Amino acid sequence: MSSNAKNEIPKAVISRYTRYLTALRSLREEGVHWVASRELADRLHLTSSTVRQDLSYIDFSGISKKGYESEGLEAVLEKVLGVDAPCNVVVVGAGNLGRAIAQHEDFIKRGFNISGIFDDDKAKIGMKVGSLVVSDVSSITRFIKSGNVSIGIIVVPESAAQEVADMLVKAGVQGILNFTSTQIDLSDNGVVCIEARLVECLQELSHAISRKK
Amino acid sequence: MSSNAKNEIPKAVISRYTRYLTALRSLREEGVHWVASRELADRLHLTSSTVRQDLSYIDFSGISKKGYESEGLEAVLEKVLGVDAPCNVVVVGAGNLGRAIAQHEDFIKRGFNISGIFDDDKAKIGMKVGSLVVSDVSSITRFIKSGNVSIGIIVVPESAAQEVADMLVKAGVQGILNFTSTQIDLSDNGVVCIEARLVECLQELSHAISRKK
DNA sequence: TAGATTGTTAATCGATTAACAATC
DNA sequence: TAGATTGTTAATCGATTAACAATC
User: Fold this and answer.
1) Which residues of B touch A175 (CB under 8 A)?
2) Nearest residue to D18 (CA, C1')?
3) What are the backbone angles phi and psi of residue A86, rounded to the nearest 5°?
4) Mean pLDDT of A178-202
5) How many Cα neighbours within 13 Å face the side chain of A72?
6) Which of B158, B4, B189, B151 is nearest to A25 (CA)?
7) Cβ of residue A63 near strand C, that is under 7 Å?
8) B175: β partners
9) CA B9 to C1' D17, whole Å
10) Beta B128-129 vs B192-195: how paired, if at all?
11) What backbone torsions phi and psi does residue A124 show, to the nearest 5 degrees?
12) In whole angstroms, what is the distance from residue A197 CA to residue B44 CA?
């Protein structure tokens, strides 16, 4: 009997929920119906204590000796993360990376439906990207408002990132995923931004490597 | 007069160093030679206290009333992160995302030289990707050993991720950047892996969005 | 000099782990 | 029943912030 009804789940816990979800989906494909905290922990390089502590924030109980019913837990985590319904996303920037992101199958598979891709470069507008066509960024506001789009992904040159973010916010997105190295400034408008920081990932890796020597 | 000579810089601090570095590079482009902890903090949405605390781990002093000499600090951070010399990288997986990553200008600009791209799909081998040509993954070990490659980037379907990681380790890379959602297992072989977790970023965003309502 | 900003210590805050009674 | 595993509390560990003397 858990039930915690806490109104605030720690940031670090939410971040791990996304990873539990990925693991639970693999387990489902493997036909595994019950999973113990130790098993989940091992798969994600955590401790079983962390897993049980994390799961104490949600309204889902395990059973002694059996563990957690994996499909049930998967459904609860999807609900908590707000990924229990598909969500429309636009990509801004139709360069190599933008076009690849727009066609990335893992996003679709996980319920993120890329419904538009935009650029300001006349040479790119009209280009086919999978089943989409690159549109002029000047039409993005109308598109977002009419298409129930809640997330914008920024994949433009660094110098344009903030300007694009402002445009997305004005158009009414609720969240932004930023693939540039520019730190986006969102004042206090209630929009959330997550930074992918690809270059910074490689730099952390460099540090870890050079520390070994 | 700082000098801390500590042998272990906290993980969270290293992670912010990569962000300071990005900010310092922008400052250089703007022609700014001195930067105060408050200014750096504001740009990255941190507190000035965090910035000064972080910088106390390295052997670089600011000056009262002026702040930090930005190019000097940039150089020291590059050294600490091990990004003061270019580094060779291979990409495994020549799908949309793999090809885009291999041509991503931000990587080159920051000293990560993509020197090869590999796939096991006959239809992709031989394909031109920027100035590279997709090679058969069976040749990757020889390539890595002879080309002084220290980092491998995994951009393959989830089901192949672990197998590719094992191959990269055997070939002798020292670090791995994983773009799939599969958690890579590296036992105890001294190789470091960083997970990009793109889908998980979007899911965190979903949570933050749905929490607002 | 007066005032701004550093460097550092100590306090606070948050996250992880250990431990164990409850339970199936 | 006996043993394994949960749920939860308390202890530990690590990260952030506040505060302020030192300094330019």
Assistant:
1) 205-206, 208-209
2) B49
3) -65, 160
4) 95
5) 13
6) B158
7) yes
8) B151, B192
9) 19
10) unpaired
11) -100, -30
12) 13
Tokens standing for residue A205: 């890796």
* Residue B52: exposure state from Cβ atoms within 10 A (0-12, 13-18, ≥19): middle
Q: How far is the CA of A30 from the C1' of D4 (A)?
A: 24
Strand-strand pairing, A68-69 and A34-35: antiparallel
Which chain A residues contact residue B176 at CB under 8 A?
205
Q: Number of A to B CB contacts under 8 A, please give it.
A: 180
d(Cα B202, Cα A149) in Å, to the nearest integer?
14
CA separation (Å) from A83 to A26, A105, B202? 17, 16, 9
Residue (of B40, B23, B112, B171) closest to A201 by Cα position: B112
CA gap A65, A79 in Å, rounded: 26
Neighbours of B211 (CB within 10 A): 15
pLDDT tens for each residue of A78-89: 999 999 999 999
Give per-residue pLDDT as tens, B146-175: 999 999 999 999 999 999 999 999 999 999
Q: Return the structure tokens found at A97.
A: 């990376």
User: Straight-line distance from CA B28 to C1' C1, in Å?
Assistant: 34
Identify residue A187 by its one-letter amino acid code: S
Q: How many residues does chain B have?
A: 213
Q: What distance in Å separates the CA atoms of residue B188 and residue B131, rounded to the nearest whole number?
A: 36
Residue A14 is inside which H or E element, if any? helix A11-29
Could you report the per-residue pLDDT of B21-71, keeping only the tens digit for each? 999 999 999 999 999 999 999 999 999 999 999 999 999 999 999 999 999
**Cβ–Cβ below 8 Å for A43 and B107:** no
A11 Cβ nearer than 7 Å to chain C strand: yes
Interface membership of A12 toward B (CB under 8 Å): no
Q: Tokens for B101?
A: 């990553």
CB A170 within 8 A of CB B75: no
